[in-house]
Structure formats: C-alpha cells, structure tokens
Amino acid sequence: MTKQETIQETIKTKPQTATWIWYPGDFEIRLHEKMSVKRRARGVPYPAYWRLDRHYSNVKFRYTYDLPHEEQISIKAEGSYSLYLDGRDNYRSDEPVITLPAGRHEISVSVFNDVEMPALFIEGPNLRTDATWEATSYQNDWVSAGTWTFESPSVPPSAFRLAVAPQEPASVEEVQGHPLLDFGRETFGYLRFHNLQGKGKVRIYYGESMSEALSIAECYSLDRFDAGEAALQAEGGIYTLGAAKAFRYAWIHADPGTTWDRVSMLYEYVPVTYRSAFECSDSKLNEIYAMSLYTLHLNTREFFLDGIKRDRWVWSGDAYQAFLMNYYSFFDLDVTRRTLIALRGKDPLVMHFNTILDYSLYWFVSLYDYYLYTGDFAFIRHYYDRAASLMDFCLAQRNEEGLVEGRQQDWVFVDWADLDNSGAVSTIQILLARGLEAMSAFAAELDDPVASGSYRSLAEELKAKTLSLFWDEARGGLLHHRADGVTQPMLTKHANMFAMTFGYLSPAQQERVIHSVMLNPEVPQIRTPYMRFHEMATLCESRQHDHVLQEVRDYWGGMIDLGATTFWEEYDPSLADDAHYGMYGVTFGKSLCHAWGAGPIYLFGKYFLGVRPLSAGYGTFVVEPQLGGLGWMKGTVPTAGGEVEVDMDASRIRVRATGGHGVLRYRKGGQTIESPIPEDGSWLEASLH
Amino acid sequence: MTKQETIQETIKTKPQTATWIWYPGDFEIRLHEKMSVKRRARGVPYPAYWRLDRHYSNVKFRYTYDLPHEEQISIKAEGSYSLYLDGRDNYRSDEPVITLPAGRHEISVSVFNDVEMPALFIEGPNLRTDATWEATSYQNDWVSAGTWTFESPSVPPSAFRLAVAPQEPASVEEVQGHPLLDFGRETFGYLRFHNLQGKGKVRIYYGESMSEALSIAECYSLDRFDAGEAALQAEGGIYTLGAAKAFRYAWIHADPGTTWDRVSMLYEYVPVTYRSAFECSDSKLNEIYAMSLYTLHLNTREFFLDGIKRDRWVWSGDAYQAFLMNYYSFFDLDVTRRTLIALRGKDPLVMHFNTILDYSLYWFVSLYDYYLYTGDFAFIRHYYDRAASLMDFCLAQRNEEGLVEGRQQDWVFVDWADLDNSGAVSTIQILLARGLEAMSAFAAELDDPVASGSYRSLAEELKAKTLSLFWDEARGGLLHHRADGVTQPMLTKHANMFAMTFGYLSPAQQERVIHSVMLNPEVPQIRTPYMRFHEMATLCESRQHDHVLQEVRDYWGGMIDLGATTFWEEYDPSLADDAHYGMYGVTFGKSLCHAWGAGPIYLFGKYFLGVRPLSAGYGTFVVEPQLGGLGWMKGTVPTAGGEVEVDMDASRIRVRATGGHGVLRYRKGGQTIESPIPEDGSWLEASLH
C-alpha cells in the first residue's frame, strides 16, 4: 500500500466523532500538578514535597490529509492558536472556521497555553482531530497525539472533573449545641448548605472519627466561611463548599442568627464498575472484602491516592499495590494509566519518584503488571523511552560492587519501620532486578533483541550477586543490607518476600524462608498494611492460606471491631482509644482511609479465588482456588477479556470464564489436576472427592 | 567566627528594605515564556518554535534567624503558601501576619503557583526576605534566592512592565480618506485613542515603512477593535490598545460614525542611560552612530530581541552581538543577565538554543564577555553548573574525529547565506574552542584546577585539530567544512574571522587571511549586518580602519539614504524600491529595526575610540584610538568602574578615565608607546608629532 493510499484509508475509517488532542502525557501531568496541592492541614496548604512537573505550554500538531473536495472545518483550542498549510508558517490563520483546499496537504496548528494544557479540537465532514494526529513539544519529537474521552468541543480537557452525587447524612445530633453530622461511613466530597440565612461565620470541623470532628483544636480538616458571602454563591438555594474533604463526621459551628434548612453533601467519585465479588462462609471476611472495595474506591480518583484525607498525593509504592487491587476489582485502566504517567513525570530525572529510591523501582514492576493484566502493549510502547531513561537513571546509582545504594538525597523507604537502610539494601536489588526483567520483556516485544538481552543479563547478574551476597544459609534468609562491603547481620522479612514472589529463590530456599523468616516470631513483625500486603501474598504463595485468613480476621477485623468503615494507614492492636488516630506526632494525623489498607481484595481474588494471568492480557490464565479452611466461597474476578467466576466448597469447584484460555488447577487424591475451562462461558465442575 | 555569630552579623547588616524572592532564574524564564509568544503575523499568533521553559510551580524557601526578642512579621506571596518553623512541617500557618518566637529558628515557606512564578515577601523589624534566603525546587538544590528590584509588597514580580511615555505623531495626513500617522521614526508601543466615540469597527495597519502601512493586504502588523467595547475600557477618556507594536506609520480605517479627537501612543522602553558618545569629523558617521544607538535601544527590552516587529524572540547569536554593543553604549547589565538566563533555560537539553548549534556555542562566549566587561563573577558562579551541563551536551556531539557536527535535528546556521553546512563546519569548531576556553577560565576562578585544565586541554586539542584539518596554505585561509573525513574546497570568510578575533592564527596566517580572504573579492561577500558585524571587527583588528569606515559609510549609510530611521535585518544595495522590505517570501517580511544592524556602536567604541578591557571588569584596560582617516573624533565608552573619554585629532590624543588601571597605546615616529592613564580622572594628552 502506498503512503497516499494509507492516508485515504485512514480518512475512510475515521471515527464519526472528533476528539480533543494534546501532547501525550501532558493531560495527566497537568492534572497531577493540580491534585498534588489539594492537601490542607487545618485549612493550610501542604503541597507535595517533590518537583511537580508541568505541561508544555508551547506545542504543535500536524496531520496530512487528502480530500477529494474542499471542506469547511471548525477549530477550537485551549490556548491561542494558529494554523497553516504545507509548512508555510508565515501564512497563518486563527479564524475559528476555515475552508481547507482539496488535495493532499499537511495541516499544522501551533497552540500556546501557559495556564491549562494546550489542546485542539477540529471538526469537519471528514477531517477531525483524533489520535492519528501528531504532536510535538518542539524537541524533535513528533508523536501520536494524546486523547481520551473529550469528544465535545464545549468540554475541553481542563474541564475534567470527577462525578458527583448528592448524599444525605445518616444522622444529625446536637453536641454542645452544634449539629454533628454523621454520614454513616467514611466519605469524600463537598458539604452543601440548603437555604443558608444570616451573615455570620460558619466553622466546620471534619472527622474521619467522631473524636476528630469533636476536637476543634486538633481535627485535621476544617472549613470556615462567611454565610453572607456564601449565600451569594448559592445555586438553587444550595451553597456547596469549594474544596472536597475526606470525612465521616462534620461538626458545624455557626454564629448566632446564621441558619440553614439542612446540610447534605456532594459525594465525589470515579464511576467505576464493581466487577469483582467475593463471598464465603465467614461473614467477617465478607465484611472485610466489602470494606476493602470501598476503601479502594474512595482512593481511586484522578489518580490512585495514598489516602483521601492525607496525603492526597500519588505515591508510587502505594500505587503499586492499588494497581494490583484494581485488577481484582474495578479493572479501571484509565486511573491506572493516569497514575503511571503522572508518576513518571518529565525529565530531567534528578530525584527519585516521591524522593524514594524504591518508589522509582516499583514503577517498572507496575508497568509490567499493567502489561500482564491488560495486554495493552500500545501503552507500553508510548512510554518505553521514559522507562528506559528512568532505568538509566537508576543504574547510574550502582556502587563499585554493582549494587544500587541510596544517594545522600534519596529516601530508602522499604517500610514504615525502624530499619537501617544504609548501604546496599537487599530489597532494593531485588526490585531493580525485577525492573530489569520488565524492561527486557518490553524490549523483546519491541523487537529489540539487543536491548532485551542486555537488560536480561543485567537482571541475571544482579540476582546472582544479590543471592550470593545476602543469603545467609545458617539463618535461612536474605539479610537486610550491606554497608562498606560487609553484609550486616540484620534479618528482615522484606527482601525475602519479594524474592519469593518474584521466583528468585530455589524451592529449598523458599522452604527455609517460610519457616525461618516469615513464620519466625523472632524476626521483626510487620506493622503496616503496606507491607502486610506483600507478607500475606508471600504466605499465600507458600500455601499458608489458613494462616493468612486468621491474620486477615485479626488485623483487618481488628480495625472493624474498633469501628472502622474503611481501612487505615496503620493499625497497632496494642494502642488504646484515640491513640489509634495519631501518627507523625499529630493527634489525628493518621489516615483512616488508606488505599494500602484494601489488600484483601488482592488476596481473595488472586490467592483464594486463585485467578492469575499467565500471559499478557489473560491470553492464558490459571484458576487455582484455595478454601484456606473456609466452608465455601464464591466470587468473580474481572479479566482483560471478560471475567472468571468461581464457586467452591470442600466437595467441588465450579468455574466459568469468558475471554482467554483458562485452566483450572486443583489437587485431588494427592495429585495436581489441570482442566481447561470451557471457552463458551459454560461452567466447569470438578469434584474434589 | 562561629555560625551563630555569622547569623547575628547578617541580621545586623540586613538592608533596610525587604525584597521579593523566588527560585533563581525563574523570573527570567517565566518572562521569556510570556515574551516568546508576543509575535503576531497579521494579527495571528506566531509563537517561537522551540521548547519554552517554565518556572517551577512548587518551591520552598528557608532562612535561619536568631532574634533576641519575638517579632511580628507580615507575609505576602504570589501563590498559595504555608510557613512552618524548625522543620515541623505538620504545623503550618498561612496567616498573613504571625509572631516569630525569639531565639534561633529555621523558617520554611512553601509557595505554589501554577500561573505566575511563586514569590515571597516577608517584612518584620529585623527579619526580611532578601538574597540571603535560600530556595529549592525540591531537587536537592538549596540555592540563594533570586531577587531584583521588587521592594514593594504591592508590586510583585509578575507585575513587571517596561517603562512607558506618551508620544505624539510627527504628522497626520489623510490618505484615501483615512488618517495616516507618522511618528517620524521607528518606534514601539501602544496606540491610544483620545475621546473615542461611536460603535463601529476600527482597523489599524501598521508599517515600519510607509509602503507597508498603506498595504492593507500585506502589512505585517495590524489591529482591529470595536469602538463601543473599546470605549468601555478607556481610562481618563483614553483607550490604549492592549498589544504593543513596532511601527513608524499607522493607517487607521474606521467605520462611519466612529470618531476620536486624536491618536497618540505610549512608547514602551527600558529606561537605559546613554552612557557612550561618539562624534567625528564625518557627519554621516555621526548619524550612523546615533541611529545605531536608537536601533539597539528599541531592541533592548525584557530581553535583547532580534527585531521589534519580527521575530520579537530571543536568539542567542543575535544577543551575542547585542551584548557587545551594549557594553559600548548603555552597559545595562539587567537586560544582559535576563537574556543570558532565558537563553540557557532549563534541563533537559534536547535541542540547541533556538534549535541552532552555533547559538548554543555563542552563549559560552557571551558569558565570557559578560565576565570580561563587568567583572561580575558572582553571576558566573550561579550559572556555572548550567554552563557545564550545556558544554557536556555540546561535547557529546563530537564525531569520531573529535569535531562537532550538527545532528539531523540541528540547524547549523553560520549566516543567512547559501552555505553548505553539512559535516563538520570550521566555524563551529572555533566557537566551541572559544567556549572551552571560557569554561576553563571560569573553572580556574572557581578554584577547580582539574576542570580548568581539562577544558583547557580540550580547547587546545580542538584548536590544533581545526588548524591542521581546515587550513589551506595555498589559499591562505580556513576552509568552510569537512564531510565524510574530507575537507571540502569551499572557502568562506566566517571561520577566518572568528579564528582571527579569538587569536587562533599566527601573525603570518593573519596576514594571509586579510589579503587572501577578507579583502579578496573572489571569496563570497557577506550580505547580512549579522556577519558584517564580525567582518568589520576582524578588519579593524587587522588595522584596516580606513577600509572599514568606507564600508560603514556605504552599507549603513546606504540604508539611511533609503530613508531608514533604524537599521535593518538585511540590506542589499542592488534591490529597488519596496523590494528592500521583503524577506522570507513575505512582502513586508523584513525587520527594519534589527539589533544586529547596530554594529557601528561596537566598532566605533572598541576599534576607533579603541577602548578594550584586558582583565575582568576593566581591572586593566587599554585605550588605543584610531582615526582611520577621520580628521578628528571624540567620545565616551562606559566601563565597569567608570568611563573612558577620548578626544583625538591628527596631532594629539587626549584621554581620561575613571575606574581601573588604563593605559593609552599609540604609535609615534614608528614606535608603539604606552602611557598609564591617570587614575584621578584627569586628562592625559599625548602629542602625535
């Protein structure tokens, strides 16, 4: 097919709808810039403490058309724009409607916008902006234009807002003469005052817990407004506050003479579909699963956030887990992609993601998981260069032994725990090796065997070195770190968990790790849901399902017993009363709705219902259900091409699936049996007796 | 002195005035972003076609104070801000007035602004923002805060505007029933309508020439407005147009019934001091000098522009010359520094400055000249890292022979001429060598002998290689370029001029170049004032002053004879009538007020009055006046520490100077004589007989 034919073909098959286009990645980067400064601590701005990348203000778009007849097009841009044909840049137009000549021509449109992201919308009978247009930031970088769901000229990308829905409080009671609203569970949105009257001040004290809302002096979130001014902004008799908050309770103090009919809220959310389900014979676990979904949903927003009260930021290690939970629940790829792009940001790479060395490394693993669960290689292709340059940046940090160490300016996090992360930390090497494997897989998919082989060798070398330098045969695990060329005696679970999950240990080593490290009470216990996520996964991979269920009942169930309606940033059963709500030396500093608290979604979907992709996009997958001591369980896991339903009790497993080639794996009479799952969506039943 | 004493000392000696502070360089970068999109071609935006860098939206400031008593401070910021003490970032305030505790404390203020540059102004009895505060962009980069002349809390950096002054047209005549305003000479600013009445449309056609203003269909700049809407925006009965333009003429068409009393303008300018003077026995040259000053002044704006009608952009090669002219006229260092910072922009370096390889290289030479003429090493120190990384970027482009070549995406400009700049161009190597010498000098000044020596070796190596590969002994000059390992036969003046000016040629080679290249009519002639600038300088350095004066009379005088009131982008005496005004295939595309047209300022100051710094900041300098056939001349050149006055005729030289150690050098009786210039400012007189 000649080039000209390609173009005519393109025009013929154009979608009927034009769409806003922009420089790819800039929508996410601009949105991330805005969202990263939404956090308020007692009403005072608390911006993220890393460089916030910005959209290119000066961009250009181009497209070559071939039209049999002249055609009138209308042009809309966010920003000032000018259009010209065939490179004649001295002859420009900024008219909103122009007539394009017939024939083959290259159309160029420059757009400048230093406030919102430059974007373009062109609509004609045949010629329309869409992802087949190209964009440049004037850096020798003509790339496919970015697009999403903006198909109306009157709703440009900068107008993007999450969905909202009105909600009423579950109860209102007077406390010390002021109304205390209880919305029944943790929520997020904008309070609304109906028929506000008077001229006084109104003060609102929010709480994720009742104690917090009733603590005027120490609640984390608050609002203040002047009723007179507010009434002027009311629409249809309703004044909606400007800034959304996370809360369950709101205690409202008003000056005398200031009144309203009632206070409700606008719940703000991403309209995800709850595509997963899990139900079992233990109602506590069912409650934990439902609460996990809601916890994750609240944190599934413009991006996957760490927590909705605090920090309201995009943290790469937190997002890594949210991505996995999402694959086992909403399977919302828009939020996933937005988060991956925002985290990578722009060049130059100076600091690590969120200033944390491990958080740069998680990003590669997240990208690989995205590919594995969705099969969407087009996305990987778009961002491969940014991944490769990030890898260069990470590799440049290797010490003379070839191990990556934190620089002076780096935070080596690993976990919220009292860890000495100086020198080369084993967990870091394992995450880097996994990142290198991901890069190798991407390069192979891009038909670049040289790059693929090079990444593969680096990964193998690093894995071998890590095992040789950190493995302590006597203690049966990987030691924590190595300083000044000497591996230090500290033993932690962290590196062992990742090495096991990534398949870096021999069966004998795995066995040692389970018993000498994971189940060894002498090894420091993990206190954050963040690392418990990995810990529980690792235990499941070692078939410790019964143990895991008991942990879930105790740990997540413990929060529910304390009145949680969403899961917390951290939970220490030894604390009493309001001490649970403090963190970072701040009385109500703890986030009570933290994405990483929703780990049971992943555990139940991947390790109990047992659904796992074996190749990209669930092209092939396995279903290996485990009751873990439950009487029965049933549930659904969404996949790239459909879904998997599982229904199991002690006597039989029923499974059905749509999309991809699945296999049911189970044990019967001491044997492992694999049965193909019917591809017509009908049930497969396997008797366990 | 202990650290604490230092701080108390600092407080004691604090200036009485607080000043706005910001992340250093961002004021210039934000201003450059705004100015780079001011160009309009027939009213249509024509933005610069390179990446426009942007200010950091998220920054933090810090300062450690030690106060004997608590103190109330007031805080103003451009952007949302929060303040905390002693790293307690969970306890922030955004109150506009707070009381600081006594004692030693670290104050931190985070400021976010995604529209204008984040800036901070704090004022208390003792504690005030100034350049001793530090700023970070959260990239492990605590640096001295940027400041300038913003000392009023009510005039923040984003309010920066050039000065304006009302001006009246020199004449108004009716042409085809519409008033044609003539402001007497080229100017720049905003038209103003006094007592505008009626509701019709008004159209304004601007012209740098009368032909342009009278060409409704082809004039480059135009305005359109609705008189009814405009009248609403009038202040004191005067409607001032929103966008400034370059013009001498304005032809105004209005719908019937739309009237005004008169039209004037607001001239917009930088209030520079005309610190230089030149007067001689040839009144034509005096006229050329005055017109050069005015041409340069009009282009001396937020930055040194190429031209005020077109492009209104900051081009590095153009600025290189404007910097030199400025040292011999206004000595305005603010515009110089702003331009140097804006040109360098931010990382990552992907494309060369203005997309042009040579333009990155001129920047090093410009930076060196800044140091030589001003002695301000503090500025160099601030930007040394950005210079070093730019040099890395340039050096990475060396081919296997060690010569720098343009990449596919690079524009190798050299000159507006029909040049083949493929392969390794000799001019580029010479500019790079000069850049390396500059870097070596800076590194030495920074007490980094290793870096200094390394840059020096690279420079020496490159110079030697260039001379060996490009010098053609038979033809007596450096050939133009080398492709595929073979030096091509093309001979041009360009590399020869730079090699001579930078002192890279032996006396014998210099002699050959003058006669075989510079004065050889067979070698392609230079047609742009851009390269004539260098050509004339080179001829002066070879003591061809008489020849140069004749060239100046012909070339610059030729433009005056054609009615120029400022000097042009290009001048070809062979063209007729309005053909002079065309360029780039656009009828009135040529800029008639182009900075590079003002070269005589530099020639007269440096080579006729003969004033040249010998060491940084005119610590030592030489005055070597040359009449070049003139009967007499007198004049003034500003220096870093004062000024030099020269008064010369055929029989004697009189010179006096303030600041630095100067020496008068002159020839008498076949001998070169050097006499120290008195440091008390009194006249030194040397008889030439």
Q: How would you portray this structure in words?
A:
- 2 copies of one chain form a homodimer.
- With 689 residues, the first copy, chain A, is α+β, with helices and mostly antiparallel strands.
- Chain A folds into 5 domains: 3-159, Jelly Rolls, CATH 2.60.120.260; 163-269, Sandwich (Jelly Rolls); 273-356 and 526-603, no CATH class; 358-412 and 418-504, Glycosyltransferase (Alpha/alpha barrel); 611-687, Maltose phosphorylase, domain 3.
- In chain A, 30% of the residues lie in helices and 25% in strands.
- In chain A, strands 11, 12, 13, 14, 15, 16, 17 and 18 form an 8-stranded antiparallel sheet that branches. Chain A has a 5-stranded antiparallel sheet with strand order 5-7-3-9-10. In chain A, strands 19-27-28-29-32 form a 5-stranded antiparallel sheet.
- The longest helix of chain A is centred in the last third of the chain and has 22 residues, at 449-470.
- The radius of gyration of chain A is 27 Å and the shape is globular.
- At the A-B interface, strand 2 and strand 5 of A face strand 2 and strand 5 of B.
